[in-house]
Write a structure and sequence with these properties.
The chain is an all-alpha fold and about 60 residues long. It is built from 4 helices and no strands. The radius of gyration is 18 Å and the shape is flat.
């Protein structure tokens, strides 16, 4: 992988994954949903892992 490509990827990751986005606060009216909102980003990863469990169940056809 060329160094320029690695630098570009690092810059993209650095700009999209900043601390402000992770530590954002919901408005007070929606504060009761904080625990649910904390779990929501994990759901796509669980679906990805479910695909492997499913394939293991059918012997990776």
């Amino acid at each position: 992988m060329p160094a320029a490509m690695i630098a570009t990827l690092a810059a993209m990751i650095g700009t999209t994954w900043n601390g402000e986005a992770v530590l954002a606060k919901l408005p007070e009216a929606y504060a009761i949903f904080d625990p649910i909102v904390d779990v929501l980003p994990i759901i796509p990863i669980l679906f990805f892992l479910l695909a492997f469990v499913w394939q293991a169940a059918v012997s990776f056809r």
